[in-house]
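[audit] Reproducing an earlier prediction to check determinism. Same input, same settings, fresh worker. If the tokens differ from the archived copy the diff job will pick it up downstream; this log only records the rerun itself.
[audit] input (393 residues):
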Amino acid sequence: MDDPEAGGFRREMASSVDVVVVGGGISGTSAAYHLAAAGVDVALLERGVVGGGTTSAAVGVLAPPLRQPFDETVHFRGADEARAIWEFALRSVASLGTLLRERGESERVALDLTGGFVLAEPHTLVRVQRAHAALERAGLPVSWLTAEDARGKVGGRGFSGGYFVDGGGCLSPGPTAVALARAAEAEGAGISEGVEVTEVRRERGGLVCDTDRGEVRAEMVVYATHVDSRRFSSYLGDEIVPIRGQALIADSGGLSFPGGCSTHWKLNVWRSVPDGRIALGGWRHDAWDRSYWKMKPDLDPGLQGDLQGWFERAFPSAAPLAVEERWSGIFGWTADYLPLVGPLPGRTGELVISGFSGGGLPFAFEAGRVIASIVAEGDPVPGAKLLDPRRFT
């Protein structure tokens, strides 16, 4: 599992702020950074360590942004909305990369924005071709890869082609959340680790966050706790479905991959880790009955074996894969693959940034900007309406 390292953030917390962000993953720290940068008095409360929850379980691949072939997105949403979704994610990744570089965090978070690879296997080739053609028609930054191109770029065997996403890449998720928390703190945010919010209640026109360390009063609360957000709202329990994924980290056997790699629209993802290992995750597409509505990040030996076996067949030079660690993680899935970002229906002062359907890394930073624009009444963020939680009501 991606180790974010203890952020060393202070454990004391303010008794009263404008906004409380509950959760210190990449979405919560993104929201806290943008809120603080907009001049909002914000406190982030994380019950464990920043970057140590759902975020740390992610492999770290940034492209493609959405777990759906682009031509299907166009079919269901129309060309303009489909393009707006991709542009939102590409803008998010680019601005996150800029901030990390400006703060000197690139090496610490293993930032690699050399591109993303969406690879086709024989049984997915036609779907990948259709998705690529739709992306090209939309004018998005992609280029086709022949089977020979795929072998030349990522090696392996069994890939029938694919496409390259300019602006994609990968990073280490947990350390990235820590870097964002440091950036938020530099803008004046209060970051507190080891504080569990047990309840949020209304009192005298405001909100009170009850924690295991006392009360914090706020005008607004932002829930950034992924599937755990259901503790605070039945609405989130209805609209965010927990899905359990499997992942591992292993010696690369001398293999090295550029950027982030994926098949099946991120149902299988992998990247090189700077220390010479590989991080690999996925293998849910043939086992939804063992992954859907699972609340605990338990290891599934069968799926772990399937994941490892698939990689060894695709990259036989790495076989047998020397696995050093295996883990599982839970992420929140929504009906349209898009996150819930904005005010909760019927809950004045309560907002959410959650339900990223396993695509939180490319969306989260710009989603944090959406939260700040709502709270600080700034300029609307392009594409934000598509993420409004009220779309399901």
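[audit] rerun output stored. Observation attached for the diff report: The mean pLDDT is 92.
[audit] end
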